[in-house]
Amino acid sequence: MSSRNQMVLDKKDVRNSDRLDFALFRKEHERGNYPGFMVNYFESLTLEEQRNYFRAYQTVRAQLRDEQDLIDHLLPFLQKGTVDPTFEREFFLYVLFYGPNLDVSAIYRKEAFLELLNKYAQEVSDELEAMHAPLTPDSVFEEGECPF
Hints:
The chain is an all-alpha fold. 71% of the residues lie in helices and 0% in strands.
C-alpha cells in the first residue's frame, strides 16, 4: 500500500473516531449520565449545535486533569446560551480570575495551562489591568447613573 493511500485511511480513521466519540457523547446524555442541566441543554440543541458543543467541550476536557472540574463549572456557560469556539478562552479566564477559589494547577494539566497562558496572554494581561485599575464613578456607573 502506498503512503498516499495510508494517509487517506488515517484521515478516514480520524473522522470515524470523531463520529464515534460524538455518538458516545450523545448516548451518555440520552442515558442521563451527565447532570440534568447538561442533558437539558444538549437536548435543546440542533444536531449541528450539538456537534459544536461536543467539539468545544472535548477541547476543554482534554486540557483538564479531571472532567468533573469542567462539569462542576459548566452551568454558568450553558445559561449564557451557547458553548462555542470561544468557550476555551472563556473557561480559561473564568478559572484564572472568577472561579470560586479554584486552584489552576489542580484543574489544568501543566502543558495545557502553559499553552493556554501563551495563547491568551493578551486577554490575561487585559483582565489583570482591569482588575487593578482604580475605580472611579465613571468606571462603575453608566453615564448619567452616578448618584453623586
